[in-house]
Amino acid sequence: MTNGRILSYGLLGLPLAFAALPIYVHVPRYYAESTGMELALLGFILLGARLLDAGIDPWLGWLADRVSRPRMVALALLPFAIGFVALLNPPVEHAALWLLGSLALTYLGFSAASVAYQAWGADIGEDSSLRTRLTAAREGFGLLGVVLAAALPAVLAASLSDGIARLSWILPPLLLIAAVTTFSRVGVGKPVLAASQPLLPSLRRVFADDAFRRLLIVFVANGIAAALPATLFLFFVADVLQAESASGPLLALYFIAGAASLPLWVMLSARRGRVFAWLLAMGVSIVAFAGASLLSSGDVWLFAIICIASGLALGADLALPAAIAADLGERQGQAGACFGVWNFVAKLNLALAAGLSLPLLGALGYVPGGSAGLPALTFAYALLPLAFKALAGGLLWRWRHSLEI
Fold first, then answer.
1. Using one digit for the tens of pLDDT, what is the confidence trace for 14-40?
2. In whole angstroms, how large is the CA radius of gyration of the chain?
3. Confidence (pTM)
4. If 35 and its partner were Cys, which of 95, 187, 347, 387 is the partner (CB 3.0–4.6 Å)?
């Protein structure tokens, strides 16, 4: 497969990730400030919407094994774009209902497109090395989309809230350009359509694979370690570092480091194996989280160094486990079902991070924009992720032989 076709496949990852950053990072603080919604209510809405979203992923994966993957992607893009624009332009009244409804529409389109898109990559990948390159291209363009989403609000408006609202109107044309390029240059591959069996037997077959089960357990622990700081990043920068205006550049720095590191992780995984490379990245993350726990007001440059270090590790987190999952899905002959479960677990991590951490911080006395409860915020942002990352690394080391395919 030519590099041009690999890059054309990866390009669609840019608008998908462009929207994912505001959904998972900006929305909590955006709705708390622009609508005055209480943290407890906001956390429970996010938890409920994300649990519903995660719950449909296994069904979407099952469906993706029975229809054309490109057609499923194309049909999902319209509700995704409409829901995203609505999400970032809430009305003054009934903001809670608006948040729930627009999240549901956005999640439905995003989830259907993502599951089919990932399975499509498994179809056109002929071996483990090519699947790793396709995954790296998808995640690399995704990181570029995240960088754009992180940097543009400050460019589009003087205030972060206005910039986020205007950001929503960038997605539709960006999505159209990327979709036309991907669909015109990437073939459908040779999908292995699963037999017409019901959903539950298909899922049992996914979980019957010992290696996939172990990979999921590592992915859960590692995903929680990533989801907690993703949810709390803006709160930490604004209230612990007292540098809200630096949040956009810091996010951009983090994701630029992740994008720059992708070729290095792909090269290292080709030489030493994907498990070894992933373990090394986890070690870098642990050091970064430990450093973040020591920061206080004004430590922006130190935090920038931590953003670079954790961003370098992010490249491995995005490319390597998903590439292993693609191999396991093709081995089972139902890549869609495997990625449906995979995305379910990823979203469950994000749902629990928002649904549990925000009410907990509220109960411990933390109020956004204030000085109370800052030790609790630092603990949830840095030390809890450190513990989960260490657990993930220990499990990955224990099961390294069964996961190196």
1. 999 999 878 877 888 788 888 888 878
2. 20
3. 0.73
4. 95
